[in-house]
Amino acid sequence: MQINSKTDIGKVRSTNQDAFFNCELSDGAVFAIVCDGMGGANAGNIASETAVKRITEYTVNSYRSGLDSIGIEKLLKNAFLSANIEIYDMALKNPDLSGMGTTAVAVLLKENTAVIAHIGDSRAYKIAEGITQITTDHSVVQSLIEDGKLTPEEAKFHPRKNVITRAIGVEENISVDFDEVSLGQGEHLLLCTDGLTNFVDADCIKEIFDKYKPSTVTQKLVDAANKGGGSDNITVVTITL
């Protein structure tokens, strides 16, 4: 199993409000998380870094080798809830942090089964014979697509395409979505922020995975996002079986 990661400030932003982490757990299982913070000044940085730290700590400390997929889902849910409480309380106590929040997409991959938790519009993809978006964005445009008021193509250029409907830390209670996928030998899992997906379409992402070795894919994805506009921070984590 190979894990590779890369974050980049992009071509426009003065700070990087993305955060990520990946590690191997006690029995060879793998954990990875990507967050995209939001908020004024450095509040977005604080939200994303706090979420990564809290969710990672909770997961590493609570993980046990005998956990099945249901147990892993409960673990990740509690990790997300723990991070939400901490960030929400921080914002209540400090007016400078008011309204801060972060997206989060995390995976715990055990053997060939990946349990994915997410909130917001950071995404998980499976790359095999084709490319499949695993997560569904919690965003205004996604809601409009589901209601039949917007096509996926129109959503790419909608003025509110970056407005999310769920985030960690913004409200006292959150709802976390879960997905489970199987990976075969040589197949890939991609976690990323919208700094990638807003500027590189799925077919191009697939072409990069097909063309380059796993060790260089992350840099090539970042390069493609910067070439496509680079007006946001870009973070990618890849796991290859």
Instruction: Just give the CATH class.
Output: Alpha Beta
Query: Helical element count?
Result: 7
CATH superfamily: PPM-type phosphatase domain
- What is the level-2 CATH architecture name? 4-Layer Sandwich
**Roughly how much helix do the residues carry, as a percent range?**
25-40%
Are there runs of 5+ residues with pLDDT below 50, and where? none
Instruction: Give a short account of the largest sheet.
Output: 6 strands, antiparallel
Overview of the molecule:
This protein is of the alpha+beta class and 241 residues long. The protein has one domain (2-136, 165-240): PPM-type phosphatase domain (Phosphatase 2c, domain 1). Helix content is 35%, strand content 27%. The chain is built from 7 helices and 11 strands. It has helices spanning 43-62, 69-93, 140-146, 152-155, 194-197, 202-211, 214-227, and strands at residues 2-8, 18-24, 30-38, 101-102, 104-110, 113-119, 123-127, 131-133, 177-182, 188-192, 234-240. Strands 2, 3, 4, 5, 6 and 9 form a 6-stranded antiparallel sheet that branches. It has a 5-stranded antiparallel sheet with strand order 1-11-10-7-8. A hairpin with a 2-residue loop joins strand 5 and strand 6 (113-119). Helix 1 packs antiparallel against helix 2 (69-93). The chain is globular and about 50 Å long. The protein starts with a strand and ends with a strand. The mean pLDDT is 93.
Describe this protein with a few key phrases.
241 residues, alpha+beta, Phosphatase 2c, domain 1, 11 strands
